[in-house]
């Protein structure tokens, strides 16, 4: 039972009591409507290697999925291991592996599944059996789901890709791609044989009676195909060699198929098998996008006349067609488009908004900037609770954007759903209010595992992101590696990015939900972008910052002093006799206390110096240029290849210090993500003094709370001037990582560290302990969908725009302090700050009685007023 459902128990109990008192109670349907929201909430992530016979050692990938008629068995294609997987999702919050069906049991070990589609008691497994690009072949295997027995194999005329089944169950359509050889010639078209579409007539209940027919998209012979006039006149690129990619069928049994490499769409009437229309997907001019892989998040580039080259396609209300414009060898418009199928004209185009969405949420894959950027590939359209939704997957940004489609020609952005790497298959399951996302990338040596992620519809708020920038006042960010309080503004923080990008210092407003990155300044050296790997930052009382630079070699590790404008003004190398043997994993955090002659810089190394069994904590006094060393004992790392290390250090109000200690593990293997505290001895020693540490907070439950794959790099920790403890994860610049940034408020400094010393400023409104944002506290403002930006959209329709705050002044400049509401209430214990669930919902019974009474009174008053008119 999810949190919204548990909360509903309290409301339902209140409704029953109200009914017993003679007041009309809410019906179950009314209760669901009153309590359900229109957001999707991630409830589970299942790494599919767990369903493979070889387990963790398996190289496996979920690509396209389907679901049984009862919605409880999820079936996915795994081309990488040449298998079809089965999952029990009776409890979607806890999927259970049901094993796999290897294709060698159906045909040959070389067979490759390209798609799956459930139909009654059966699942169609679409199989590529091609010997070569020049001699493509394939088949559809009809498999009984209950016992996974092969019922029938149907030969196809070429190499298949996707499959779709009509809503009335009368037809199945298969795209016969006959894909090109990218290593032949220039890798482009034409390359015979041409592709086509095959239609399976599902006549009768048993597969033996089903017939298959072909809809040719060319004339001539397979060796020398000729273009059809309808494709040529439509402006289809290289019409003599169409390569069908993705098929979709509307309620009128009209098939739409994308010709991705040909940059076109073809419509086919399934009953007759006739082509009724063809149109070019056209091209788009793009501006304000990042087009160069240069280590900078720089959305100032532009591209002209870019072919859309659509991949996935979906019908909207049987008239409009939405396409995910992934691109191929000539193009890719980095967004999606909605076409009017009656005219073939563009009804709406995303322009640069899809790319800006990724930039604003830390999900832009900068290493793909020179290619196809976010690379939108997967797409689906479905109705939940009477409302149409569009889902668009970013293959490289690792997210699915959700849009509300009350007006198909003006989609409204609702939320982003974080996934694991390479989301492709999007499977709405509206009968169970579920959404399944299949992510195909599997690189075990990098901690990246293919997974099925399940989301539940009905949450009252967006769970992700937990930190973002305003899409209308874009501040691109990523790879946040350190946090610091802002001494001038108690509810604001500074953050720094590491060497994944040119270093920048970010300003964060923690009173916003999600937390808002308002502005950033570049870190410069001699007027040019600094070449630094900044792993920690600390704002100085005297203005500017100290930062920790982790060198590639030990002697390159340095403490960096930076002024308010971001310019490096001093570098302090660490003592060579200590760090010379470090090859990497050096400086990871920095803190500062005092000012003037009393200023001290406290810093942490990540790993042990060779030959030592402790990690060094250092203290540097700028006035005397002296170093003092302390030893910190790490928790045992275990027997695998993982290791434990420090990721951050920050000062506490009572004079103690806190560090992040974490392991190298990711996802389901993660064991240690924690905050420890210790006190530095007042008397310096010539020897390395071993510190006594104590656990302050286990952060692993916080990282696991939103049911994704647990992030490895818990990197930033600080205490705001308002007394709240914040942490942030480094998303590794969406490079061999999911890219999800977790920013979380762990609670007050007193709750986390047990210190009674508090800042004089009143505490800020606190987020929940976990980064979960889907449930809004009673009486607070509900989250609203963020609008698609209009100023830079280049869209046919202009969605509405909300006001955005202006950028904050540069770090260290004079800034007015935000107002705060003083309160005499003591800080709530952690348990009371969690969302009201289960038994805690019983307080809603008397509240329900009161509210019901007020509602009845108001209704009676309104009724009397109407009668008196």
Offer a quick outline of the entry.
This protein is mainly β.
Shape by Cα distribution: elongated
Structural class: mainly beta
The helix content is: under 10%
List the strand order in the largest sheet.
33-37-36-35-34
Radius of gyration: 29 Å
Please give the largest β-sheet: 5 strands, mixed
Number of strands: 55
Strand content: 35-45%
Count of DSSP H/I helices: 9
Mean pLDDT over the full residue set = 86
- Which ranges are low-confidence, i.e. pLDDT below 50, for 5 or more consecutive residues? 1-34, 757-869
Distance between the termini: 48 Å
Q: Please, could you describe this protein's structure?
A:
Helix 1 crosses helix 2 and helix 1 packs across helix 9. This protein is mostly beta strands and 869 residues long. The longest helix is centred in the C-terminal third of the chain and has 25 residues. A hairpin with a 3-residue loop joins strand 22 and strand 23. The chain contains nine helices and 55 strands. This is Esterase-like activity of phytase family protein.
Supply the key terms:
Esterase-like activity of phytase family protein, five-stranded mixed sheet, transmembrane helix, mainly beta, disordered C terminus, Phytase-like_dom, 9% helix, 9 helices, single chain, signal, elongated, transmembrane, 869 residues
Layout of helices and strands:
Blueprint: H1 3-20, H2 28-35, E1 39-47, E2 65-67, E3 73-78, E4 83-88, E5 96-102, E6 112-119, E7 122-128, E8 138-144, E9 150-156, E10 160-165, E11 171-176, E12 196-201, E13 211-216, E14 218-220, E15 225-227, H3 229-233, E16 244-249, E17 254-259, E18 264-269, E19 274-280, E20 283-289, E21 301-307, E22 313-316, E23 320-324, E24 336-340, E25 345-349, H4 353-360, E26 376-384, E27 387-394, E28 399-404, E29 412-418, E30 423-429, E31 434-439, E32 451-459, E33 467-469, E34 480-485, E35 492-497, E36 504-509, E37 515-522, E38 524-525, E39 528-529, E40 534-539, E41 545-549, E42 558-562, E43 568-573, H5 576-579, E44 587-593, E45 600-605, E46 615-621, E47 626-632, E48 644-651, E49 657-663, E50 673-678, E51 689-690, E52 693-698, H6 700-704, E53 714-719, E54 724-729, E55 743-748, H7 749-753, H8 830-833, H9 844-868
Parallel strand pairs: 33-37, 47-51
Antiparallel strand pairs: 1-32, 2-3, 3-4, 4-5, 6-7, 7-8, 8-9, 10-11, 11-12, 12-13, 14-15, 16-17, 17-18, 18-19, 20-21, 22-23, 23-24, 24-25, 26-27, 27-28, 28-29, 30-31, 31-32, 34-35, 35-36, 36-37, 38-39, 40-41, 41-42, 42-43, 44-45, 45-46, 46-47, 48-49, 49-50, 50-52, 53-54, 54-55
Helix pairs in contact: 1-2, 1-9
């Amino acid at each position: 039972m999810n949190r919204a459902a548990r909360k509903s128990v309290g409301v339902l109990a209140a409704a029953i009591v109200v009914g017993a008192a003679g007041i009309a109670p809410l019906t179950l349907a009314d209760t669901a409507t009153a309590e359900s929201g229109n957001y999707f909430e991630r409830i589970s992530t299942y790494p599919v290697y767990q369903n493979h016979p070889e387990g963790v050692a398996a190289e496996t990938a979920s690509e396209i999925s389907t679901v049984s008629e009862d919605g409880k068995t999820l079936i996915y294609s795994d081309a990488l291991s040449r298998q079809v997987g089965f999952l029990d999702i009776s409890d979607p919050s806890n999927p259970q592996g049901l094993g796999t069906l290897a294709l060698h049991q159906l045909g040959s070990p070389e067979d490759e599944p390209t798609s799956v589609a459930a139909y009654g008691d059966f699942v169609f497994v679409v199989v590529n059996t091609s010997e070569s690009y020049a001699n493509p072949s394939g088949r559809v295997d009809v498999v009984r789901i209950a016992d996974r027995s092969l019922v029938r194999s149907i030969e196809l005329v070429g190499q298949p890709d996707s499959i779709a089944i009509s809503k009335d169950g009368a037809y199945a359509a298969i795209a016969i791609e006959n894909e090109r050889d990218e290593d032949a010639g220039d890798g482009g078209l034409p390359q015979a044989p041409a592709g086509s579409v095959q239609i399976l007539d599902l006549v009768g209940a048993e597969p033996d009676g089903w017939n298959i027919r072909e809809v040719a998209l060319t004339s001539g012979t397979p060796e020398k195909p000729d273009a059809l006039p309808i494709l040529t006149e439509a402006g289809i690129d290289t019409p003599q060699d169409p390569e069908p990619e993705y098929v979709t069928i509307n309620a009128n049994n009209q098939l739409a198929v994308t010709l991705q490499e040909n940059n076109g769409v073809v419509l086919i009437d399934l009953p007759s098998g006739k082509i009724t229309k063809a149109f070019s997907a056209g091209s788009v001019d793009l501006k304000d996008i990042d087009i160069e892989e240069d280590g900078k998040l720089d959305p100032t580039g532009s591209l002209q006349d870019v072919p859309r080259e659509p991949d996935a396609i979906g019908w909207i209300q049987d008239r409009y067609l939405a396409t995910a414009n992934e691109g191929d060898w000539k193009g890719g418009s980095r967004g999606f488009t909605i076409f009017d199928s009656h005219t073939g004209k563009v009804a709406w185009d995303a322009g640069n908004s899809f790319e800006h969405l990724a930039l604003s949420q830390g999900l832009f894959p900068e290493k793909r900037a020179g290619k196809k950027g976010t690379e939108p590939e997967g797409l689906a359209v479905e109705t939940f609770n009477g409302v149409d939704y569009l889902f668009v997957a970013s293959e490289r940004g690792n997210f699915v954007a959700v849009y509300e489609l009350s007006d198909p020609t003006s989609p409204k952005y609702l939320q982003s759903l974080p996934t694991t790497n390479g989301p492709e298959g999007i499977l709405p399951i509206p009968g169970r209010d579920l959404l399944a996302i299949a992510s195909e990338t599997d690189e075990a040596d990098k901690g990246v595992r293919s997974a099925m992620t399940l989301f539940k519809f009905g949450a009252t708020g967006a769970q992700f992101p937990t930190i973002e920038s305003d899409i209308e006042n874009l501040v691109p960010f990523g790879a946040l590696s350190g946090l610091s309080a802002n001494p001038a503004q108690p509810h604001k923080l500074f953050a720094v990015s590491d060497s994944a990008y040119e270093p920048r210092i970010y300003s964060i407003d923690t009173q916003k939900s999600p937390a808002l990155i308002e502005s950033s300044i570049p870190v410069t050296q001699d007027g040019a972008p600094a070449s630094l790997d900044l792993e920690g930052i600390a704002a100085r009382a005297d203005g500017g910052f100290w930062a920790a630079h982790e060198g590639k070699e030990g002697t390159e590790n340095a403490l960096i002093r930076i002024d308010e404008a971001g310019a490096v003004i001093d570098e302090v190398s660490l003592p060579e006799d200590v760090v010379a043997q470090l090859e990497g994993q050096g400086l990871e955090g920095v803190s500062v206390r005092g000012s003037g002659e009393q200023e001290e810089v406290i810093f942490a190394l990540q790993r042990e110096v060779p030959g030592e069994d402790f990690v060094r904590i250092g203290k540097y006094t700028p006035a005397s240029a002296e170093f003092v060393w302390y030893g910190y004992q790490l928790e045992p790392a275990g027997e695998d290849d993982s290791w434990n290390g420090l990721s951050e250090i920050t000062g506490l109000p009572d004079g103690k210090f806190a560090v992040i200690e974490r392991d190298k593990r990711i996802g389901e293997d993660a064991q240690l993500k924690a905050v420890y505290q210790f006190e530095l001895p007042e008397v310096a020693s010539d020897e390395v003094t071993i510190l006594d540490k104590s656990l302050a907070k286990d952060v692993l439950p916080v990282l696991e709370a939103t049911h994704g794959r647990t992030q490895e790099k818990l990197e930033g920790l600080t205490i705001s001037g308002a007394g709240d403890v914040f942490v942030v994860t480094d998303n590794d610049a969406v490079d061999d990582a999911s890219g999800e940034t977790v920013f979380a408020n762990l609670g007050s400094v007193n709750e986390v560290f047990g210190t009674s010393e508090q800042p004089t400023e009143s505490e800020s409104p606190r987020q929940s302990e976990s980064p979960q944002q889907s449930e809004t506290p009673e009486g607070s403002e509900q989250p609203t969908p963020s609008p698609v930006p209009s100023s830079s959209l280049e869209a046919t329709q202009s969605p509405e725009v909300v006001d955005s705050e202006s950028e904050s002044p540069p770090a260290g400049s004079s800034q007015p302090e935000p107002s705060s509401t003083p309160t005499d209430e003591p800080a709530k214990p952690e348990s009371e700050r969690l969302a009201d669930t289960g038994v805690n919902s019983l307080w809603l019974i008397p509240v329900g009685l009161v509210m019901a009474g007020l509602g009845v009174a108001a209704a009676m008053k309104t009724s009397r007023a109407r009668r008196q008119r």
